[in-house]
Amino acid sequence: MPTDAALNLRTDLFLDGAFVPSASGKRFPTVNPATGETLAEVAEAGPEDLDRAVAAARRAFSAGPWAEMKPRQRGKILMRAAERLQSRAEELGRVETLDNGKPIFESAKIDMPAAAECLSYFGESADKLYGETHMGRPDAMLLTLREPIGVVGAITPWNFPLLQAMWKIAPALALGNAVILKPASVTPLTALLFAELLAEAGLPPGAFQVLPGPGAVLGQAMAEHPGIDKISFTGETETGKSILRAAAGTVKRVSMELGGKSPNVVFADADLEAAARGAINAIFYGKGELCSAGSRLLVEASVHDALMEKVVARAQRMAPADPLDPKTRLGSLVSEKQRDVVARYVESGQREGAKLVAGGKRASVAGKGAFFEATVFDRVTPEMTIARDEIFGPVLSTLTFRDEADAVAVGNSTIYGLAAAVWSTDVKKALRTARALQAGTVWINTYNLYDPALPFGGYKQSGFGRERGRYALEEYTQVKSIWVDLT
Q1: Contact partners, residue 39, CB within 8 Å, separation at least 6
Q2: What are the chain's domains?
Q3: What confidence tens digit (pLDDT) does each residue in 383-415 have?
Q4: Catalytic residue among 291, 300, 390, 404
């Protein structure tokens, strides 16, 4: 196992432009879930550290080089940082794989380049935010301006530790806000490395800070803190509700990207080979630890057997393996705790009458790790627990439908509405179904593709607000009206 020095890890808080110990001196372990071995002991931030970070962020936002910087200068810093991130994608990808358990192919070849692309996109957008002029009165000129909100608290999940943080960091910084990031406690390492990279690119002290620590304490304190103007949260729905309650005391802005139970709808006229590949990618990419995972496969009854034969065969070939092997496509779950959660859901599915047709067991590599087999259930009905709850693991629930109307009804029979997909060669039917599904993102004849210009967010209890694209620029600004009297 590499040492901290071999990995070049930073394990203190990043506060006001420097790496410093926490005020309490407390530290907590972050573990490689593929081996169970401790990677590092990370500084644990507490309320006193949060107060210091808020004060530094407020200074950066209100005075000094960050506050005085022209938008184009901010953008250049972010684009320099994007170039550095891209050049170090292999290094940061390795750290993310060790911390999270995902395959190195995903972290180094997909996640890090996508994070760099997002940073570059918003760097280029920094000077492209416009107000409006309203000419409806002869006696006045009416203007609107979009201004940064102030201090943003970003609370991010463990499944895509740096990429999903970038969806918040990049637009917020591009617009001149100051950001305090609380990464997930189980995967804090790439956030700390990225802080160093941003500083190297020229970001002034206080504009970006990283405070690792327990969500129940630190996340709650961020939501309650009067010095934080906005919370952007990605995570589990029940946690999001507690953040909302905590933020209500200061009436701060909040945006949330929460859970999902996304339907992947396959019609009888679909290309079944492509749909089978898509179904596997939809649920097993990222080990199923995706809020947008296609965890419900909805199949038109007449092609059920033909499609399931292809899906099961592919799932059975997806053996858990060493995440550092470039050929691996199914890594370790993020922790033993999460593997236990997945195992309980598998037991629930069997108990409630679903048919287990692939996987379903804990696994190990060289006798170690929080691995779980690629798992497929058939004969699932909408009322079953595995069809309703977000499992956040490599477990696919297969349901059937009769026709287009039934597909939509089953697809929408959930409290969530984050993502969905439709597979059909009938363009009109595919578009009708896409419009009828209650989801923030709908793919047609594909799954899990993203672009920094395309907004991402949910309907219903999958949250509110949007990340990426021009919609994200609106999330991190507020509108000011100006009346100029001409009489």
Answers
A1: 1, 4, 7, 9, 29, 30, 31, 32, 98, 99, 189
A2: 4-258+462-482 (3.40.605.10), 263-451 (3.40.309.10)
A3: 999 999 999 999 999 999 999 999 999 999 999
A4: 291
